[in-house]
Design a protein that fits this description.
With 519 residues, this protein is of the alpha+beta class.
Length: 519
């Protein structure tokens, strides 16, 4: 029993001794495995970092800033690598999409950990970029408003930009251009002067010359307007003073000379007008001034000739002498003398050429003339408007009668001459006269149309309201049917005051007015 127990212990000791060796080997193997895994993991992590860093830089260089941001953030989350370099890269990626606040946040966080010169310089660089970006962003906003014509809003944005970079001339120039667009030249000049006090910009100096020139032009125009008002008031002495002031301000501009000469023409002082323009043209060139001077020469030469032909035309219109009127309108003297005066042109046998009240002649253009009364500068009272066409359809037309507010108003007669084609294809002259009441050029009341063809006179009397002829009815108050489709009867045709049994029809929608008002 004793030997057996001892033998059992010996067996156990051998087993334990063998297990201890195995455990040592197992532990050693585990430790070695951990070391290998650690080394491999470390190598893999470093490799991933290096790959991510390279990828981030490639994204950054190619302008793929959002991908670069993600790559830099992943690189920074790793335990390895150059944190400062990655932080700077991430900041540049943020700056690439103009997210300067995040870029500065990254750099400042890094600077708190490790205050290096590189990070500090990068903070300064990003801050400068942020300032530049904000400046040009405001300029861009302003440019957008400017292009849309919202000049006041543009100025607000340019003013904000000016606060950022007050020594750059760009914001001043753009504010000035906005004021010019608004025609606020005084404010434009003030802005230029403010800018020159800080920038001494050559561009602003050139703009100042432009703005000052425009201010002179505005003042020049105001002076001439004042001169025109004096002329209207017939205060010619003060008008001359204004013209002289304008000439002193811009001595090379021809407008004051020309208007002053025109004033002398109004006064019929052609000699003074000629001397004024000759003096100006000795030192300057002006087509307009030369034209005015030529006109003055023609006026001096043709003064009496013009008076004769205009008096003849006025008389012919007053008595409705169609033959004389048309002859004068086609006459070369009329074309050369009267038409050159320009239109509208007013004439009175007494010599007055700017009619506001009274009687006289108005030439609207070479083929449209009026003789009769004027009220407040418009046709009013009794008068005749004659229009020459000279074509196959219509030779001429006129209205003679009452006028008010520059249009036919009241009793009057309209007439026109043209040609129609008969059943054999031959042209026949036709004259149509329409007498009755007119309201602003529209037939309004009882009207009578008279047709003259081949010596035959036909008449039709009808009713009209605001130009629309009314339906003619028989004794039973029933409308007479027209033989033509889309037409209706407005009256019975008479010859020598006797009914012919024929009726006069017009097309549906007809509205009678004086011919020259439709042209």
């Amino acid at each position: 029993m004793g030997k057996s127990a001892f033998g059992g212990v010996a067996v156990i000791n051998r087993i334990l001794h063998g297990s201890k060796k195995r455990w040592i080997l197992i532990v050693a193997a585990v430790i070695l495995l951990f070391i290998v895994l650690y080394v491999y993991n470390d190598y893999s992590s470093r490799k991933r970092y290096e790959e991510k860093a390279v990828m981030a830089k490639e994204y950054l260089d190619s302008g793929s800033f959002e991908e670069a941001q993600e790559a830099y953030r992943e690189a920074l989350s790793m335990d390895y690598g150059d944190k400062e370099l990655m932080s700077i890269g991430l900041a540049e990626a943020y700056a690439g999409v103009h997210d300067y606040d995040k870029a500065l946040e990254v750099l400042r966080s890094r600077y708190e950990i490790h205050k290096t010169t590189e990070v500090k310089e990068k903070i300064e660089e990003i801050t400068a970029k942020k300032t530049d970006h904000r400046y040009y962003q405001l300029i861009s906003y302003g440019d957008t408003y400017f292009s849309n014509g919202e000049y006041n809003k543009a100025i607000d944005e340019y003013e904000k930009a000016k606060l950022i970079k007050s020594k750059l001339d760009t914001s001043y120039i753009k504010i000035v251009e906005s004021y010019i667009a608004l025609e606020k030249y005084d404010l434009a000049k003030e802005e230029i002067q403010d800018g020159l006090a800080l920038t001494d910009s050559e561009r602003l100096k050139r703009l100042l010359d432009k703005v000052q020139s425009r201010l002179n032009e505005i003042k020049y125009g105001e002076i001439l307007t004042k001169a025109s008002e004096y002329i209207y008031q017939e205060n010619y002495e003060e008008a001359i003073n204004c013209f002289n002031e304008a000439i002193w301000l811009l001595p090379k501009r021809d407008l004051a000379y020309n208007q002053m000469a025109e004033m002398y023409i109004i006064l019929k002082d052609y000699d003074s007008a000629k001397a004024l323009l000759q003096n100006y043209l000795r030192s300057n060139r002006s087509t307009t001034s030369q034209e005015v001077l030529n006109k003055i020469d023609d006026l001096i030469k043709k003064r009496e000739e013009k008076k004769v032909i205009l008096n003849e035309l006025y008389t012919a219109l007053s008595v409705v002498d169609i033959e004389t009127i048309t002859r004068i309108l086609k006459d070369s003297v009329y074309m050369d003398i009267v038409a050159e005066e320009g239109t509208p042109f007013y004439y009175n046998p007494s010599g007055k050429t700017n009619l506001t009240m009274g009687y006289g002649l108005l030439i609207s253009d070479k083929d449209k003339i009026y003789a009769g009364g004027f009220r407040n500068g418009m046709r009013g009272g009794i008068g005749i408007q004659f229009v020459w066409y000279g074509d196959v359809d219509t030779s001429w037309c006129y209205y003679q009668g009452e006028w008010n507010n520059d249009v036919p108003n009241g009793m009057g007669k309209a007439a026109e001459e043209g040609f129609i084609t008969d059943d054999e294809g031959k042209l026949k002259k036709i004259t149509i006269e329409t007498s009755g009441m007119y309201s602003y050029g529209l037939e309004n009341g009882t009207m009578t149309k008279t047709f003259y063809v081949d010596g035959v006179e036909k008449k039709v009397t009808y009713e009209a309201s605001e130009g629309i002829p009314k339906v003619y009815v028989d004794d039973n108050s029933q409308p007479i049917r027209s033989d033509m489709p889309n037409h209706y009867v407005i009256g019975q045709i008479y010859i020598n005051n006797k009914p012919t049994g024929e009726y006069y029809s017009v097309k549906q929608g007809t509205r009678f007015t004086i011919k020259f008002l439709k042209d």
